[in-house]
Write a structure and sequence with these properties.
The structure holds 3 protein chains of 3 kinds. Chain A is α/β, with parallel strands linked by helices. Helix content of chain A is 29%, strand content 16%. Chain A has a 6-stranded mixed sheet with strand order 6-5-19-18-17-7, with helices on one face. In chain A, helix 7 packs across helix 16. Classes of the chains: A alpha/beta, B alpha+beta, C mainly alpha.
């Protein structure tokens, strides 16, 4: 890389950091931080004043979106703490949150827009970037996009984004761009490498294509499958707050059983750790359901009962469906007769390696302790059988009546936003409405019979499809907060594909995508920008946060939203008009905030200014609640308004039957495709059932690549502090270590600290071995994050790139990338 | 005069290391130079291994052996019970690092944990051994606050630049009280599960005193006689003895 | 009055003296080169860290200041306890004590962060609870008395009452000095490998052995490895009393070493057991014990102990063994990480860096030069004229 992209001279830095802080913060009271020593010489050159400004914003290192207080003194951002008045943060932060200042002052940041002058692309090619103006940058992109549109090839433009953090946020700005310009590939999200397995499992059972909100504080039992509650599950910060409460302060103390494939912080902190064989969580859940039914522990007010009240669920015996009357569920008898009656704990022991007596104990506890929550994420569903595993686990919630109950789980309400400055519908020209792009499938074959009919996105397949020209090749690709040539399985396909696309990178940092880019339009970091963020599913009631700049951008960089608007303004036809009307991200936020006038938040936020001052708008409570099998709606004072079955179907249980479906009508609606794509048994394809996972990779050890608590959404690889605390359980403080069981180490002659070679069908990577009892003897654990070949001085060349040898396999239903399905072999290097 | 102390409830602690990073950024620590560290220990074997962890600030002992061994009185105990290093007096003999049973002290000039060395990336001038762009405004060499000069030993100060400005007579410094937030040590302020409490352990009405009493607070390595002012609550309040890993390198 | 029985082999004596000068200068240059590393990279060029704080420079300091102690003990045999046979080597011993003290202080001075600051913060703060403060006080007192004593005998004042009192005082001072140095380690109850009231005694005996070994090596070298080149008294001391004393003290040190090793291996305390296992299984320790101590002991039991060549070999081996012993002792007390959890879950790996070794070379070279200069200019073979 050229010098000017990486080197920041001291003079340039001081110039940049010496600018006055943003004007949005509040100045601390004079009494609060008095008596500070005068700054030493080194700081004397900077703008003075000594006042500390505290700015309300939101963290940008994970989707949890914690409210933060950013402390700026003399133009230096020097501390970040949780915002006390923010319902997720409550004044607290996770370990990553504090390191945000490091992201702001990362010495490897891009300093301004640039274009590539070396036409050759590759890991060892210097892009030879040269600085350009923003005007030239916008014009370059717009000319290219206009030319594609003129040729009727606008579908060859793809806009890929990650983490739900769009221009202001997803849905406001990115989607109209694709609609108006005319590309099915703008945008393509990253959800299929995130957690779509969970979304589909819920869509297939209770009809909500979403993650859940959880009422942990009122739950008395948590049964967690492969969602590392205390290291990686969102909202991490709030999860830990919850943990401190439910495990110590709450009476009765909440019990926790945790299912995962290796010993980690959550497993260790739980009352019981079940270290399950990878990909078999579904079998465990089925056996738990079996016990709940045979022992009569299901919630009759929600599920229903035998008409005579006598439990006929006996292992191996079918029941007469007409003898069981269901209330809010659908298909229990069919599920039992077809699948569940033989799914005994003994059977599950053989699949999962969990002793049958522990399965029975867990099932009895879960079945007798109300309210109880069964929750799962990637560990359980990043497999070929992922949606089936997810459906089985989620069905446990139905069996104990936790859906929409106090201490159970529900879904998330959206904020009371005002309308955006312009409605895209008013700016659709004929091309946008009827252009050739309308007939084009998406590049990832999402929603296509040849691809993944039921998936939400298939970002991991784009590189492979592009290389094959199937369905076509992209011409231009723009990336925002996603780096698929590093982070998808079989990442090298994406990397290869980028060589034959015009690549527009918007990362503030020189990541892998940027190194393959033709144009660099560097984004601001999250402390330098305006942005809004409705909450990810949290506690159900609506919450909208605002990010305000604590400091003017250090360099000549632009918030991605404003970049997109800047490009949009130059697109021919009404698209340009639309974006002129939109104007800027800040303008969008001012319009959104108008919605609060009619719906002031619980914290008094009623317009843009108060939103800015408080950092968030929220309005409790969640409007619906199921109480012992009856649904009620909030009437302003309490959950007093009984709901009819039709209302429940419209608002809560959004399935064809208006009930929780053990036998999925949504999946049935795609029956032919599902049977063809999966080869599943027509008798049980649409109910939670056991299907052995298809392991890939060809080795003898399961290759598990978890997220650690220090994984700051891809950026911690270049944060020295995060590297030094990356893997505390096994002492990984220089790079991620490969955790091996002593029996494996002994068999292969590997000792602690040895360099090892990890091989799959796709190739091999080198790693450092850590011999530990934390890992199962059939498993190798190597956290992802390191192994970058770009990104910055600390990330480049550090550790092992796990996705290089993670095979490309996706769940046929959800399209979820099967990150944990690969098997590898290991040897001493 | 208050005698500041800390209570750490291991039943609540999730081992997340936010205390460590909050401290790092508040006090401008080098990567790996954790005034506040979280220590993990693995014992026993699959399928029933034990993983436990242990957050470790400076214990600010009643009888600090580091202070007793210091040949220049650079390490001293304040009236309000905090053990600090006066960087103007420290000669860098490192005897205190030898004498501290809890391993909480660091010498300025050590090999970096992480290369490239942040000290080279953000070089300091004059009294500052380095100068990161996010350096906090506080710098008080006489109390060992801020970025240390070359050739001295540094340690956790209980965020002395914050707690020393707390109103006199305050029994507890907690994030829950908006008026006191800015006086709470960084690790305590950010602790998501509220596993940390900070207050006057001589004041019977303080939360810390009550917790020590109700939940049977214990102190580490009592046999050394250092009498820490940091108390631990919870079942896993013991640090495993040293044994070499089965598979030695 | 000294009677020279043979014509001294001046050629071989001056060859050794010049060789020593050359080695000193070469070492100085090498040491300064490494010192430049210290200047540019600071103590970050050391391999010590907050895991293992004191390394080779500190163990070298301990080795040399205890050697100085031992040399003073030997000098005191004549000057305090009136064993007149030792007079002919007494001046050499005192000069050697000065030189080894300087080596120790250079090594320490380059190890600590702000050595110059010591000059004012140590006297102005009176940190009387610190063993190190007392160690500094007594070593400073000892250094002053030692130089004073050398000044007096260099002027020919061997046994005026003032000179005798200074001699006694320096002997007493160094007893306290070495004891407080022992306490610097022995008082550390949090480090069981070091802890114990016997440490000052252990230091006393090993210091004495160290002084004796230096005499066995260097005084023999000074006289061309030939007792015939010495005065009669010196030759008698070197061939009769010294080997006997050396043998006895060496025997005691072997007992001490074995006792400490056996205790360590038997103990359950990890800081003793695991560290002792680790050290005892190292080649360095085996060399130290068998080649560096047992072999010289056997040599001292044989009739060859009277011969200069045997003494040079035995003295040299014991010096190496003691140097290893100091290193093992200083480092051994820190091998087990203190409260580092998984960040450091095995014994700490430490090997001195080039800079650390360079500092040692520098300090020793200065010592060799000073000794060589003393040998040339200060008439070190002088003794009281009766």
């Amino acid at each position: 890389m050229d010098d000017h992209t990486t080197k920041v001279t001291r003079r340039r830095f001081l110039k940049a950091s010496g600018v006055a802080a943003g004007a949005t913060g509040t100045i601390l009271g004079a009494g609060q931080l008095t008596g500070l020593k005068p700054l030493s010489e080194a700081h004397a050159a900077e703008a003075g004043g000594g006042q500390t400004i505290v700015n309300k914003s939101i963290c940008g290192q994970c989707p949890a979106r914690c409210g933060i207080d950013i402390y700026t003194t003399n133009g230096r951002v020097h501390a970040i703490y949780g915002n006390n008045d923010h319902p997720i943060a409550n004044g607290k932060l996770c370990p990553k949150g504090h390191l945000g200042t490091y992201i702001l002052y990362d010495p490897d940041r891009f300093k301004g827009p640039m274009k590539r002058t070396n036409p050759n692309k590759g890991r060892n090619e210097d892009p030879k970037f040269v600085p350009i103006s923003w005007d030239e940058a916008f014009k370059t992109v717009a000319d290219r996009l206009n030319a594609l549109r003129d040729k009727g090839e606008s579908h060859k433009f793809g806009l890929f984004f990650g983490r739900g953090w769009g221009a202001s946020d997803v849905g406001v700005n990115i989607v109209p761009f694709g609609q108006l310009y005319g590309s099915p590939n703008a945008p393509i999200g990253h959800s299929s490498m995130c957690s779509d397995g969970s979304v589909l499992a819920k869509q297939c059972t209770d009809g909500n294509a979403s993650y859940n909100s959880y009422d942990y504080r009122n739950a008395n039992y948590l049964l967690i499958f492969g969602a590392n509650f205390l290291e990686a599950f969102r909202p991490y910060n709030n999860n830990m707050q919850v943990w401190g409460y439910i495990r110590r302060e709450k009476t009765p103390r909440t019990s926790v059983t945790y299912v995962d494939v290796h010993m980690n912080a959550t497993a260790a902190a739980a009352d019981r750790a079940l270290l399950v064989k990878p990909g078999t969580d579904g079998a465990l859940a089925l056996a738990i359901a079996h016990v709940i039914l045979t022992e009569g522990l299901w919630e009759r007010s929600f599920v229903g009962d035998f008409s005579d009240g006598v439990n006929r669920f006996k292992t191996g015996e079918s029941i007469d469906p007409s003898g069981f009357t269901e209330k809010w569920t659908h298909g229990l008898a069919q599920w039992w007769n077809t699948e569940l009656k033989d799914r005994t704990p003994k059977w599950a022991e053989g699949i999962t390696s969990i002793p049958a007596d522990l399965i029975v104990k867990t099932a009895r506890e879960f079945g007798t302790t109300r309210p109880a929550i069964a929750l799962f994420e990637r560990g359980a569903h990043n497999h070929s059988n992922g949606v089936l595993n997810g459906m089985a686990i989620h069905s446990l919630n139905a069996l104990v009546g936790s859906l929409f109950a106090e201490g159970g789980l529900a879904y998330q309400m959206g904020p009371a936003y005002g309308p955006a400055p312009a409605d895209p519908k008013d700016y659709m020209d004929d091309y946008a409405k009827n252009g050739p792009h309308k007939k084009m499938p998406r590049i990832d074959l999402q929603g296509h019979e040849d691809g993944y009919l039921m998936a939400k996105n298939m970002i991991q397949e784009v590189g492979t499809n592009h290389l094959a020209g199937k369905p076509y090749k992209l011409d231009t690709a723009m990336f925002y907060m996603t780096n698929p040539c590093f982070s998808t399985p079989k990442a090298k396909d994406w990397e290869e594909a980028l060589k034959s696309m015009y690549v527009i990178a918007t990362s503030p940092f020189p990541d892998e995508t940027s190194m393959m880019a033709d144009l660099i339009l560097p984004d601001t970091t999250y402390m330098e920008r305006w942005q809004d963020a409705p909450t990810y599913p949290f506690q159900g009631w609506p919450l909208a946060q605002i990010r305000t700049p604590a400091i003017k951008p250090l360099y000549d960089v632009k918030t991605f939203g404003d970049t997109l608007i800047g490009i949009g303004k130059l697109i021919n036809g009404p698209t340009g008009e639309y974006f002129k009307k939109i104007e800027s991200v800040e303008n969008i936020l001012r319009h959104l905030a108008k919605g609060f006038e009619a719906n002031p938040g619980d914290n008094g936020v009623k317009d843009f200014e108060t939103w800015k001052a408080k950092g968030c708008w929220y309005k409790k409570p969640y409007h619906w609640r199921q109480v012992r099998g009856e649904f009620f709606e909030w009437d302003g004072k309490g959950w007093n308004k009984p709901m009819t079955p039709d209302e429940v179907k419209a608002k809560l249980l959004k399935t064809a039957t208006g009930r929780f479906e053990f036998v999925s009508s949504y999946m049935a609606s795609k029956k032919d495709w599902v049977l063809k794509a999966t080869g599943r048994d027509a008798a049980k394809y649409n109910m939670p059932h056991w299907e052995p996972p298809k392991y890939t990779g060809g080795g003898d050890l399961h290759f598990i690549t978890p997220k650690t608590a220090m994984h700051a959404e891809g950026r911690s690889a270049n944060i020295p502090q995060a590297i030094a605390q990356f893997q505390p359980a096994v002492g990984g403080n220089k790079q991620a270590l490969a955790e091996l069981h002593p029996s494996v180490a002994k068999a292969k002659g590997i000792r602690n600290g040895d360099r090892i070679r990890i091989k799959s069908d796709l190739g091999e990577i080198l790693a450092i071995a850590k011999v530990t009892e934390l890992t199962r003897p059939d498993t190798l654990v190597l956290p992802f994050e390191h192994g970058h070949w770009a990104g910055g001085r600390w990330s480049k060349g550090r550790g092992s790139h796990v996705d290089e040898i993670t095979p490309q396999q996706s769940d046929r239903i959800s399209g979820m990338a099967n990150y944990y399905t690969g098997k590898v072999s290991v040897e001493k290097a | 005069m208050a005698r500041w102390g800390m209570v750490i409830d291991l039943a609540k602690c999730t081992g997340c290391q936010a205390c460590s990073t909050a401290c790092q950024m508040e006090n401008n620590r080098l990567p790996g130079e954790n005034y506040q560290d979280v220590l993990y220990y693995t014992e026993r074997a699959q399928p029933t291994p034990v993983l436990k962890w242990f957050p470790r600030p400076c214990m600010h002992c009643e009888e600090p052996s580091c202070m007793h061994v210091c040949p220049t009185k650079a390490t001293f105990k304040t009236e309000d019970g905090v053990v600090l290093v006066d960087w103007n007096k420290c000669i860098g003999c490192k005897y205190c690092m030898i004498a501290c049973p809890y391993g909480v002290r660091f010498y300025t000039d050590e090999k970096p944990t992480i290369e490239p060395n942040v000290k080279d990336v953000f070089p300091g001038t004059g009294d500052l051994s380095w100068n990161p762009p996010y350096k906090g405004p506080q710098q008080d060499n006489a109390h060992g606050v801020g970025i240390q000069p070359h050739g001295v030993v540094s340690k956790c100060t209980f965020c002395y630049h914050k707690i020393s400005k707390a109103p006199k007579g305050t029994p507890d410094l907690s994030n829950d009280n908006p008026a006191l937030r800015e006086f709470v040590p960084a690790c305590v302020r950010t602790c998501a599960p509220t596993a940390r409490y900070f207050g006057d352990i001589d004041n019977p009405n303080s939360e810390v005193s009550r917790l020590i009493s109700d939940r049977k607070g214990v102190r580490l390595l009592e046999h050394t006689g250092n009498k820490p002012q940091v108390y631990y609550l919870g079942e896993s309040g013991a640090v495993p003895g040293f044994s070499r890993p089965d598979n030695k390198s | 009055m000294s009677i020279i029985t043979h014509a001294p082999d001046q050629a071989s004596i001056s060859r050794i003296s010049n060789l020593r000068l050359g080695v000193g200068i070469a070492g100085l240059i090498a040491g300064l080169a490494a010192g430049i590393g210290l200047l540019s990279g600071g103590h970050a060029t050391f391999n010590t860290s907050s895991l293992l704080t004191w390394g080779l420079p500190v163990s070298t300091y301990v080795f040399f200041v205890l050697t100085s102690t031992g040399l003073t003990f030997v000098a005191s045999l004549a000057m305090v306890f009136g064993m007149k046979d030792f007079y002919p080597i007494a001046k050499r011993c005192v000069w050697g004590a000065v030189v080894t003290l300087i080596i120790g202080f250079i090594s320490l001075g380059l190890e600590i962060g702000n050595p110059l600051r010591m000059l004012w913060v140590i006297p102005t703060n009176m940190a009387v609870s610190s063993p190190m403060w007392w160690m500094g006080l007594f070593y400073l007192t000892y250094a002053i008395l030692l130089v004073w004593k050398f000044h007096l005998i260099n002027q020919g004042d061997w046994d005026s009452s003032q000179s005798r009192i200074i001699g006694i005082a320096s002997f007493v001072a160094v007893i306290f000095a070495h004891a407080t140095l022992g306490s610097v380690f022995g008082m550390m109850s949090m480090r069981p490998f070091w802890y114990g009231p016997m440490v000052p005694v252990y230091f006393l005996i090993t210091a004495f052995l160290s002084g004796l070994a230096f005499i066995m090596l260097f005084i023999n070298l000074d006289y061309g490895v030939n007792h015939a080149n010495m005065s009669e008294g010196a030759a008698r001391a070197m061939s009769r009393q010294l080997p006997a004393i050396f043998g006895v003290v060496l025997g005691l040190v072997i007992v001490f070493t074995l006792a400490k090793t056996m205790t360590g291996l038997w103990s359950n305390v990890p800081e003793n057991k695991i560290v002792t296992q680790y050290i005892a299984s190292s080649a360095l320790f085996q060399f130290e014990l068998w080649i560096g101590m047992v072999l010289p002991f056997i040599m001292m039991l044989s009739s060859k102990r009277h011969e200069a060549t045997t003494q040079v070999v035995a003295g040299g081996l014991v010096i190496v063994a003691l140097f290893i012993g100091r290193y093992e002792y200083v480092v051994g007390g820190q091998l087990i990480p203190m409260f580092k959890g998984a960040w450091a879950d095995d014994l700490i790996a430490y090997a001195p860096s080039i800079t650390e070794i360079g500092i040692i070379i520098l300090a020793i070279s200065v010592g060799i030069l000073l000794y060589a200069l003393g040998d040339k200019k200060l008439n070190l073979s002088d003794s009281p004229r009766k």
